[in-house]
Amino acid sequence: MPRWFPSEPVDLSFFSTAPHVYKYVVDLAVAPERVWESLTSDASVSAWGPGVHAVRWSTPRPFGVGTERAVTLAAKAITVHERFFHWDEGKRYSFYAYEANRPLFKHFAEDYIIDATPTGSRLTWSFALEALPKTKLPVRLLSPVNNLMFGQMARSSKGYFAKTA
Length: 165
Prior knowledge:
- The structure is a single chain.
- The protein has one domain (about 5-165): START domain (Alpha-D-Glucose-1,6-Bisphosphate, Chain A, domain 4), CATH 3.30.530.
- Helices cover about 25% and strands about 40% of the residues.
- The chain has four helices and eight strands, in the order E-H-E-H-E-E-E-E-E-E-H-H.
- A hairpin with a 3-residue loop joins strand 5 and strand 6.
């Protein structure tokens, strides 16, 4: 039985106050509805996010504030339980990690915003985190690696949606 390490809840203000915020904007040649459909599908970002092995929604549809899911990362070594705290159907959702099977962060959250553009849609994807006291230095030193890793996930969305357009 895995041991679970709790993380603390956040709200939307965390995306502007967190010690580490990574923000990516990707223009996609598909309608906003298609992006939303993918984000809320059974596979969600595991369909196109390198490093995301699986997504398992724990809450039945329809999804909204309070929805929970488990995400398995890093070659099945890390599982994070997430809880959605903001849900604007078809446009935006945000969640925080409330526990993980590794002592990763004090706070971790993601925010996805979808806007219509003349050629399709724009996905704005933000990650915000605060390290645990004992991991603050390594997280700060690894910030460029996190930026590359999260950025690769955002770039992968472009290729995925180009193939499925």
